[in-house]
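One thing: could you explain this record?
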Amino acid sequence: MIRRSAQMKSRAENFLERASVFWVVAALAAVLLATSNFPWHLDDYDQAKQAFTSFEMVQQGHWIYQHTPNGWVATKPPLVGWFAAGFFFMIRSWELAWRLPSFLAGLALFGLIARAASIYGRVPALVAACAFGFNLFAPRLATLVRTDMPLALIVFAIGWLIWEKIRKREAWNARDRVALFLLLVAGMLIKGPIAYAFLLPGLIAFQWRARRSNDAVSAWSGWWPWVASFAIFLVWAVGGIWFVPEFYEHVVLREFAGRFSEEVHRPQPLYFYFPHLLHRFAPWSLLLILLPALGFREQRMKLRDALRAMSPETFWLCAWSLGGLLVMSLIPSKRVDRIFPVVPPFCLLLAAQLASFRGTEKPRRKAMAFCAISAVLACLLVPGYSAQKIAREYHEKRDALASFGEAVRNEADRNVWQFGVVGGKDEALLLYVRQTEFLDPNLAAVKWKAGFLDGLVVAEDELPDLLPRLKGATPSRIGMSEAADGSGGRYIFLLCSGL
């Protein structure tokens, strides 16, 4: 019985070491990252706000400061919007251009994690890459029009750079500091100083440990890359305060200071992220607990002794991931996706934990078996969950408003009609019909009477007041938009009689 069990575990390791298994996992992960949000729409998770920044850049030339569809000041720096605008100039498709920054960042993270973990061996590299690609975080964020995935890429690149300096016991040189500075600037121009929250706590913990143990290894690059990158962000922020009306109220007070207040944003308890991380990162989150427990049991070590014996590079991975999670937990305003940048270092930590069993035969076989089971389950269950979600959203017609907007846009382009949009609470509608602003009902009536408009998209609840003032208005053949799953507002495309 024991020999048969050992043979099965050996087969599990041999299975994971096959190059073909890695490429199958990589291909499946790429498909999963690309398709998990079908059907594409911008109706939730503030996607319309992020998409509108690049749309405004191209349509109105506002490259530094942008607005939301409803006219508020955009609260994020413009780097991701610049990339989306650049992609649009190359491929001329907004639907792809809005999503390519996150998708390409996801693919890059998959490759970087596999490459970084490859120093531990082929199996740890596969497990780390599999952990990133097959969870409930990455596939959903990979094609959402948001900044979470690009920020995670930058944070991982910085953490990886620090990890390499620690692992190789190398001193920081001018080239390393310039690379760190450029990465920090990118992080600042994606989401502001939040990048520091994922990195500085781990750096402080690592330096404190190094000083106590008299370790010559240093993770600290010096002050200038951090200070200079923050100064560039301050230039952008001060320029907004000085030149953009309501920037201070919307960005500084509401977006930044409001995160620490219980009045502006809904607060969540301190432990909010931990159960969500356990659930959304399963089964890998369970492996992160199980593998160290297996090691402690086999070696009969106490936690304090294990921490002392831990290599500097592994301690950095622990401090980096857990430090970011702890600091984000201290901020009252919480949303699950905000802790996504801790997932890539957890994947690399999982590879380091698996590699630590290299010198022990029986625990190594157990660890390999656990990883093989986790990989197979994740590769089956996560795509299955995504397929079920896609089918449900198509059945519920979650892209109903996007389809209506495309129909309006195509008909207007085909007939060279000038049209506007009135009312409604759906910010995404403006992007679906490729307009830059909502019209006030009174202004829309004036433009209609003057003959400046051939058509008008009107929210259903605005019709009773506005329709009597639109002489000769008739519904287009498109008809009334469908509401997704029977919820949300409905819209109609009105045309001047005779068109």
